[in-house]
């Protein structure tokens, strides 16, 4: 795996352009499994966390990233696999659960797993309702959740923009939320823990909260434009 090669090799270039600073790095467990649960404002968010976290972080990536054809498709699959990203089918059901199972294995092996609690990028910069997958993983493994706020990435990379502008960003790692292993956690347990993590992120990021799933909002906006 070439994770650290890319972080160390291309990190200086990314730092000069994205200007990331980190706060609360001491809240990241030095060893053992842990869940980095963050908001999601721009594509570059998945670079800002590795640039500021002292430990390797595994992420999910859209299945489409791994299904391309030809040289370009093979290169993208190699790239994402090399930096610790594994595919998730976002159509839901058993396909999505398979990705969560892989995430659970990563945590049980003592690694860090990163997840964007909203499930997709915010359509307007506000913080949207969190999905319960992060809570499910925590209850199944007993691993702590580290609420993480990413600030400034949307300003550098507006929706639809590929190359980000030059500027500054910040990643704030909050105090870990300890979770007692409970494979039989109820839906109410999952919702309560998810909402707690979301509130922690909101306090750190200063975002306005919307009690609705971001994907639903995106679908509604897309339908209005047709």
Automatic annotation (TrEMBL):
<dbReference type="InterPro" id="IPR002123">
    <property type="entry name" value="Plipid/glycerol_acylTrfase"/>
</dbReference>
<feature type="domain" description="Phospholipid/glycerol acyltransferase">
    <location>
        <begin position="34"/>
        <end position="153"/>
    </location>
</feature>
<dbReference type="Pfam" id="PF01553">
    <property type="entry name" value="Acyltransferase"/>
</dbReference>
<dbReference type="GO" id="GO:0003841">
    <property type="term" value="F:1-acylglycerol-3-phosphate O-acyltransferase activity"/>
</dbReference>
<dbReference type="GO" id="GO:0005886">
    <property type="term" value="C:plasma membrane"/>
</dbReference>
<protein>
    <submittedName>
        <fullName>Acyl-phosphate glycerol 3-phosphate acyltransferase</fullName>
    </submittedName>
</protein>
<keyword id="KW-0808">Transferase</keyword>
<dbReference type="GO" id="GO:0006654">
    <property type="term" value="P:phosphatidic acid biosynthetic process"/>
</dbReference>
<keyword id="KW-0012">Acyltransferase</keyword>
